[in-house]
């Protein structure tokens, strides 16, 4: 059976002939159809192309040819990343019939590596949400407790990995949208430095914060995937870094002498179980030869969340203007019949096809950018963002890593926070800072809490200086072993 494969394990089994690519691919599709029969995780399957690709790979192996590490590895792709010839909805009804004519660069690189794309997975509409409940196609339940949210916005990406409906997945992270669902679902979520992975082909939410991220079963798989897809891209002017880096190269250095900076007051703000496991992790880190240092970390908290939501809403207001149902996307029946003026046509389509959270953020962003309020809101938020970036840079001059819980709370129940957007937004209280500063961050499991008979996961977050994924991944690799 395919159950539990990591990238390295599956690669070795394929190369040694212990299993075959067609067998593995078909097993995954059988499992998806059995366990995701209501299509809450996978919105679109790529079965025909995936099976053909696996058959071609099998012939290559039979000829005795070597295959690359990522070749034949089944992957799920968040539905905000464009896939050529494969439906891409962004979790919204307005793009229900949209099939891109090109691949996102991250997807293209995986195709070039020979990874098998199983399909597109669910997410909050246009990646706007922290719980997965804002998808127009329904919320996928948390694999650890079906009554609770999986976290968002990369909800399907995390659930697919946690339920072993793929080996790894691609998500996106604007303010914690890879790390939060990774924490809630008990897996690893990596947000690289802004620009490390090309954003070309990513349906934009907030362009200065969006980042393609990776969800995997362990830190090693995250590092291997990053090595495969990280590179500058001529189609993305914000991309940088170098191609072909091996992000696993420092794993053998261990953690002796490696210092984690942490803020005890931030940990104390978390729920009791989260705070307890965080402090236990820090003690284990110290016992294993690492160092810990208590510091004050300014701007992690309500200030960064307020700053983040003003900036994101403002950029959303601009980016969402293109969805008017005239150039691409769905046109509603009412608009076809009764809209004789351009503005009426757009209002009918957008009013019916966009969800409440998308509308809320468009309205908030339009207000923040409006005449007379721009300097008071958007301008101030950009000033705070500069302070966030500078405060983290000052800490990284002294200490290589910062530790926080990924989320101050355990996964909450489906519907519990829908009527309280502010409470929902505060789930991102520890994750938004890394996006505002553009630094890399990772979430990995540090413990569990048993609630109502269900074992829920608690995630710990590490942040490192910009472009220092090597240290970040090295620390996380040994941290998950603790």
Structure in words:
- By secondary structure, the protein is α/β, with parallel strands linked by helices.
- It folds into three domains: 223 residues, Amidase signature (AS) domain (Amidase signature (AS) enzymes, Alpha-Beta Complex), CATH 3.90.1300; 145 residues, Alpha-Beta Complex (Amidase signature (AS) enzymes); 71 residues, no CATH class.
- The two termini are 29 Å apart.
- It has 17 helices and eleven strands.
- The mean pLDDT is 95.
- It has an eleven-stranded mixed sheet, with helices on both faces.
What fraction strand? 5-15%
What is the 3D form?
Answer: globular
By secondary-structure content and strand pairing, the structural class works out as alpha/beta
The top-level CATH class of the largest domain is Alpha Beta
The helix tally amounts to 17
Number of strands: 11
Radius of gyration: 22 Å
How would you name the CATH homologous superfamily of the largest domain? Answer: Amidase signature (AS) domain
**How helical, in percent, are the residues?**
40-55%
Sequence stretches where pLDDT stays below 50 over 5 or more residues: none
**What composes the largest sheet?**
11 strands, mixed
